[in-house]
Design brief:
This protein has helices at 15-22, 26-33, 43-46, 49-62, 83-97, 111-115, 127-130, 134-141, 161-164, 168-184, 200-208, 220-240, 259-271, 286-292, 305-317, 322-330; strands at residues 3-4, 13-14, 70-74, 101-105, 143-146, 149-152, 189-193, 211-216, 246-251. The chain is of the alpha/beta class and 331 residues long. It has 2 domains: 3-62, no CATH class; 70-330, Rossmann fold (3-Layer(aba) Sandwich), CATH 3.40.50.300. It has a 7-stranded mixed beta sheet with strand order 5-6-4-7-3-8-9, with helices on both faces. A two-stranded antiparallel ribbon has the order 1-2. A hairpin with an 8-residue loop joins strand 1 and strand 2 (13-14). The chain is globular. The protein starts with a strand and ends with a helix.
Length: 331
């Protein structure tokens, strides 16, 4: 099988996957890339990750994929609903699609940072340090995970953001100005991993976001988080005169064997049909296994149900070939 890959890269995409996404025959895609069989690829070619990723990007652009800049945040005032899982998994899939992607980890628990094994020294800068001088500090503070995949890592110091962002003017600009620096340096997607609270950092995140995804589970507290989060997003945008972001709901930890899960899905489909992402993320031991290995389910080539579910989520929320997404859903 012909594969776009690099031996040093965990996050690659195969011609077969590209064919499934675009609906174009594998043979036609191979002609576009003019690639040899993977057994004949030399060590020198394997080292050129950028070349392979640029070919992927060129192909998707040729098919009119949308790479316009966007800021996407996962927010729920309830903890334990999978915000970090969503953030890091979406980021790796977006990187495979050709987006130059940066995660901003503002949760003081630093779960996204740990998911990629980014461990900071005591004096290493985090969002708390860079937001006042973004033009000077952002690009030197982000860490490269792989080609076109970066993170502004977090530490306990971000727990002080509620104090440093008490001024409303600071809340309005802090996250947005950091995102603007990333945009000006060629990034197309910024994904923000937020703490489970309505602190000033989350308020600032709302001001910067184009898309807000509310991950929910079947417990009553996370479901209450939908109304609370939606209400606060609307209030924040009105207060700061920002255009309201697109708000979506993603149902996490769905288990079709449990009546409560099924009942919750039916309720979400009835009450929030217009903003509910039309795919669910099921329960899976793969998430913990992947995080122990400091990677996501998109590392390597293995296909499975959970990977397919997150692929559909990624393509829906990024509006990445939605016509094929719909066809998959119908099947």
């Amino acid at each position: 099988m012909v594969q776009l890959f690099n031996m040093s890269s965990k996050y690659t995409i195969s011609v077969k996957e590209i064919s499934e996404i675009t609906g174009i025959e594998k043979s036609e895609i191979e002609k576009f890339f003019s690639m040899k069989n993977e057994d004949n690829i030399t060590e020198e070619q394997e080292s050129k990750t950028v070349d392979y990723e640029q070919k992927v990007r060129n192909f998707f652009e040729y098919q009119a994929a949308d790479y316009s800049f966007r800021v996407l945040a996962h927010i729920n005032l309830r903890g334990g609903v999978g915000k970090t899982t969503c953030a890091v998994t979406l980021a790796t899939r977006a990187k495979q699609f050709g987006f130059k992607t940066c995660i901003i980890d503002i949760d003081s628990q630093a779960s996204s940072s740990l998911a990629f094994n980014v461990i900071l020294e005591e004096d290493d800068p985090v969002f708390y340090d860079v937001w006042q001088k973004p033009g000077e500090m952002v690009m030197d503070s982000i860490r490269k995970i792989e080609e076109n995949l970066f993170i502004l890592p977090s530490s306990l110091q971000n727990g002080l953001l509620d104090l440093s962002l008490m001024n409303p003017a600071s809340q309005k600009k802090a996250v947005k100005e950091v995102c603007d620096v990333l945009k000006n340096n060629g990034f197309e997607l910024v994904i923000i991993d937020c703490p489970p609270s309505l602190g000033t950092a989350v308020i600032s995140t709302v001001c910067a976001s184009n898309i807000i995804v509310i991950p929910v589970c079947s417990d009553i507290f996370s479901l209450k988080g939908i109304e609370m989060t939606s209400r606060e997003v609307k209030s924040i945008c009105e207060t700061f005169s920002f255009q309201a972001p697109v708000v979506k709901i993603l149902y996490m930890k769905y288990d079709k064997r449990e009546k409560n899960s099924i009942d919750t899905l039916l309720m979400l489909q009835e009450k929030y049909s217009e903003i509910l992402v039309p795919t669910q993320i099921g329960t899976s031991v793969l998430f913990n296994k992947c995080f122990l290995n400091r990677e996501t389910i998109f590392a390597g080539k293995t296909k499975n149900r959970t990977r397919d579910e997150f692929d559909r989520y990624a393509r829906n929320i990024l509006n990445f070939f939605p016509h094929t997404f719909q066809r998959v859903e119908e099947n």
